[in-house]
Amino acid sequence: MRASALVGALLSVSSALQAPVLKAPRAAPLQSTIDRAANREKTDAVGRYCADDKSPERRSTSTVKVGQVRIGSSDPIVLQTMGTTDTNDVQASVEQILRCKEAGADMVRLTVQGIGEAKNSLKIREQLDAQGVHIPLVADMHFNRKAAMIACEAYDKIRVNPGNFADGRKTFEEIDYDDPQQFEDERAYIEKTFTPLVERCKELGRAIRIGTNHGSLSARIMSFYGDSAQGMVESALEFANICRKLDFHNFVFSMKASNPVVMVQAYRLLAATQYELGWDYPLHLGVTEAGEGEDGRMKSAIGIGALLADGLGDTIRVSLTEDPEFELEPCRTLAQLGDEAVSDANRQKAQNVIEFDDSETRPITSFTRREVTLAPSIYTDEFQALHRDGSVLTAVSATDLEDEQGLYAKLGMKTAVGMPFKDVASSDSIVLSEVPSDKTQLRTLSRLQTAGVGVVVPASVLAKTPLEGAIALVDGGEATPECARAAALRLTGAETDAELKAASQRSDVAFAIVDIDVENLSRTHAARRVFHHLKANNCAYPAILRLGYDAQTARAPNNGPLRKDLFILRMGMDGGSLSVDGLVDGFFVDAPFDVEFLRTASFGLLQGSRMRNVKTEFVSCPSCGRTLFDLQEVTAQISDRTGHLPGVTIAIMGCIVNGPGEMADADFGYVGGAPGMVDLYVGKTVVRSGIPNEDACDALVELIKENDRWVEPSEVEEEELVEA
């Protein structure tokens, strides 16, 4: 029998109990994996995962000291980044660290591949000290334990990857553990290899980050737990147990993954396990290999933001395929959004939400969407106002309707002979606040409806100005006008339990728009309550979450600037805190930005939440001193050539450290195998090795074609509208 069967129930745990958990003494031994698995099988629950999931407050933690910086709940969230220079290039490394510090970094991580880099790190520290610059440095260690011992002399914190510190390079070998005790007994080797580093860090007053990566779980862990959040947590706990046995407590945890949903599940399970064990170690948050630009920021906001919304997280890094100093602004913005989430004002709004218990309807470590039915009134072969995988609704004004061809393009539609038709990333429906009277505007609306786009208009407006075939947005018991083809029910979160039950059972409603009264209620908590009641009452229709902002609330925190790249972070956090639980069926983002941006950002939120793919998914590492090619240049080149392949995932990895593991979730992989050379993967398997950099992108395209995943970019050209 495979040992993973023993912990099968752990992969679908769903309860979020709120009863207080008594803390055990810190010296209490770690309960064995097998014992805890057996206990959880009996309860089918992971327990409390945050301080209070109904009234947000920061999880109470111990304080970890990293040089002069303190990480923990008693201090502000710590901001960090990672250098991209070759650590052997001392001057370049020092200059980059100074730029990161100027941009707001509280600490900077550097790559330490071997003994040479470890020794040169001492020179980096000496130069910084000579300039009077005192910023904690973190050594990023993989594979090389001897280098880690030397690195302790120069670095304030050592990042250890449990997946390869003792078990070596990533493989996908499956180990049969006929006797689960065999798995437990192998911990002796891990303890032997890790103990010297822990003792040295304790002696020098250094900190450790036990940093699990989803993409680099060891073959041993993968064989026992499978590719799971549970495996990530147990991998870290083995190393934590060794630290505790040696009475070393100056460490933090991280549970990183390139998939924000998996990342959130792993952190929640880790936090729940800490409550269960009576532990209080801080959490370092991050979505690894998030990518660049808008997509990288969106993925980070979904994952990091969802955790910050529940008061989890003490230090964060936003991993972008950009120069490290550019990571600090989004990092700082997310930290500020986290402060907003646990502020007294938001806590009061959360407390205004009517009491509810969603422990049975909101699984916190699995992604299961509510089963819904798309009514024939909004979903046919010719007309689809919503999409099965997740919908995008877009607000459109009368002015927008005047620019017919321009609006089609902004809504992501193609045209043939001037007539619009839906494409893979077209808005599913538009939302109007008024029915226009202008002939050009009405013609645009008519053509959009003919193309299968839903037109949502408030019922009160339709009663005065009918629009045939519209979808009426109704409140409460409001009647549906005769001109409407269907009704969409607005839910504000202020409804009583009885009203939500009645709403769940309405047969005349095609879908709901969850539009939380954010002036008085916490969006996250009120929406969780609404979705809880929809699920508990077996509601059959989809529910779209409206994220509404005005010119003030769309700004960066603390009355910051109104900028798209910063708004992405707020939007991603607000939507991600609900989408990671599989609660929403789509988004209606209404904010003071242009139609095209709001549409593409909405699709980014859906794709980042692993709901609906409308473009190629890139898993792109942020670069570091190990990188064997120019990641930013190569990522841009690959994106330009392959960005039109929805449903295809391509991993772009600068080196082998996390490459094979992260590519287990990808269709194709592009990995630096040696200086100037690239290896190509299909799934987990290397299929071509040693390809010169200059030929590798062409080879990747050919590989995609060979595997029948390639489509040529659309050659349909839009034609100018010929007036009738």
Taking strands numbered 1, 2, ... along the chain, how are they ordered across the largest sheet? Answer: 8-7-6-5-4-3-10-9
Q: Name the shape in a single word.
A: globular
CATH architecture identity of the largest domain: Alpha-Beta Barrel
Please compute the radius of gyration using only Cα atoms: 26 Å
How many distinct beta strands? Answer: 25
Counting DSSP H or I runs of 4 or more residues, the number of helices is: 23
Summed over residues and divided by their number, the pLDDT gives a mean of 86
Name the poorly predicted regions: 1-31, 37-45, 715-724
Number of domains: 3
CATH domain fold name of the largest domain: TIM Barrel
Distance from first to last alpha carbon: 73 Å
What's the CATH class of the largest domain, please? Alpha Beta
Report the CATH superfamily of the largest domain: Dihydropteroate synthase-like
The portion of residues assigned to helices is 25-40%
Work out the strand percent: 15-25%
Biggest sheet, in brief? 8 strands, parallel
Content-based structural category? alpha/beta
Explain the layout of strands and helices.
Layout: H1 33-43, E1 64-66, E2 69-71, E3 78-82, H2 90-103, E4 107-111, H3 115-130, E5 137-141, H4 145-151, E6 157-160, H5 180-185, H6 187-204, E7 207-213, H7 219-225, H8 229-245, E8 251-256, H9 260-277, E9 284-285, H10 293-308, E10 315-316, H11 328-341, H12 344-351, E11 391-395, H13 398-402, H14 404-410, E12 414-416, E13 419-421, E14 429-431, H15 439-450, E15 454-458, H16 459-464, E16 471-475, E17 486-491, H17 497-504, E18 509-514, H18 523-536, E19 543-548, H19 564-579, E20 586-590, H20 595-608, E21 617-620, H21 631-642, E22 649-653, H22 659-662, E23 668-674, E24 677-682, E25 685-692, H23 693-706
Parallel strand pairs: 3-4, 3-10, 4-5, 5-6, 6-7, 7-8, 9-10, 11-14, 11-20, 14-15, 15-16, 16-17, 17-18, 18-19, 19-20, 21-22, 22-23
Antiparallel strand pairs: 1-2, 12-13, 23-24, 24-25
Helix pairs in contact: 2-3, 3-4, 6-8, 7-8, 8-9, 9-10, 10-11, 10-19, 10-20, 11-19, 18-19, 19-20
Protein name: 4-hydroxy-3-methylbut-2-en-1-yl diphosphate synthase (ferredoxin), chloroplastic
Domain IspG TIM-barrel: 61-331
Family: Belongs to the IspG family.
